[in-house]
UniProtKB/TrEMBL annotation:
Gene3D superfamilies: Macrophage Migration Inhibitory Factor. This is Transglutaminase-like protein. InterPro entries: Tauto_MSAD (IPR037479), Tautomerase/MIF_sf (IPR014347). Pfam families: Tautomerase_2 (PF14552). It comes from Marinobacter nauticus (strain ATCC 700491 / DSM 11845 / VT8) (Marinobacter aquaeolei).
């Protein structure tokens, strides 16, 4: 699951485009299938979204939640691809993008009535 935060007036107009870019990066770097998109957009009022100095109101936070298994090299490749594609396609400078990968062991995930360590029919590999 991916959660994207930003100031409402800047995030709302680009949600669909940003979702396409993020999912495209997840597919190309992690091998995620087309139908495995789980994005949650949290548009915020400016008074509720404090951000570091040197950033603009386009500042966007992307939290990527995933099961453990990807190598540090794969995770770094994903982060770099996201910075590149978000800048070139959406037009947000890398200085205005913050990306965090949050990993949890498979047993901490629950979906389709089972835990992640019980599932045997994923159409993608977690260990890349």
């Amino acid at each position: 699951m991916i959660v994207i935060y930003g100031i409402r007036e800047h995030l709302n107009p680009i949600k669909a485009q940003l979702s396409e870019v993020i999912h495209g990066c997840m597919q190309s770097v992690l091998g995620m299938p087309e139908d495995k998109r789980a994005h949650r957009f949290i548009p915020m009022e400016p008074e509720d979204f404090y951000y570091p100095g040197g950033r603009t109101p386009a500042y966007t936070v992307i939290e990527i939640n995933m099961m453990q298994g990807r190598t540090p090299e794969t995770q770094k490749a994903l982060i770099k691809e996201l910075f590149h594609k978000i800048e070139s396609v959406v037009g947000i400078s890398p200085v205005d993008v913050e990306i965090t990968i949050k990993e949890q062991p498979p047993h901490c995930w629950g979906f389709r009535g089972m835990t992640g360590d019980e599932v045997r029919d994923l159409k993608y590999s977690v260990n890349v």
